[in-house]
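Need tokens for this chain, all 222 residues.
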Amino acid sequence: MKRRTLDFIFSGGGLLLAILLLILGFVLADQASFAEDYVKEQLSEQRITFAEADKLTDEEKNWKEGSKCLTEYAGKLMTTGKMAECYGNYYIAMHMRRSAANAAVDGEKLGWDNETYATMGGIRTAAQAELTAAKEKGDKTAEALAQKKVDAATSLRSTFQTGETLRGLLLTSYGFSIFGEKAALAATVCYIIGGLLIVLSVAGFIHAFMTPPDKVVLTNGS
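Here are the structure tokens for all 222 residues:
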């Protein structure tokens, strides 16, 4: 095979691949831009603003290692996936845990520190059964205590339902934004590889035209 023909084949193939990569990069970049704009639009409509730094309690600032993001975003309107993750994981989650830890009847903690919306259903059912049993026995003291437990369980379950729903929506937005970031990264990689292939293809074409027409390669005895 003539060396010039081989150069044309490889250079042409490289140029075609480069074009495909650039097109793919453009598509990925467009999707990344859509994801960023969509997340920003949806979160902005919620009008969630982080508490000012001087309004944050020590517990809010130091609940977990990542809680420092609440100080970083203090006073800002939520507009990005990272901000949604921060609010969901370190503000809403902390307040739900605190509500559960503080649940008490007549000053006695109920030990619901690690409960969730799903598990509170069983606890409320058990408390309702205690209330029913106390009513049947005519035990007013036990009935009053059981009623307080039912009320506490109902209130905490409602808190969990609201908190977990909002937290889930915010973390979904965060996940969507991550896909956008990955798409942007992939687009950059496509652009870099595509650009490199274009340079190599151009060099290949130049080499082809500089190669003597009668030079052959990949033949026996060559």
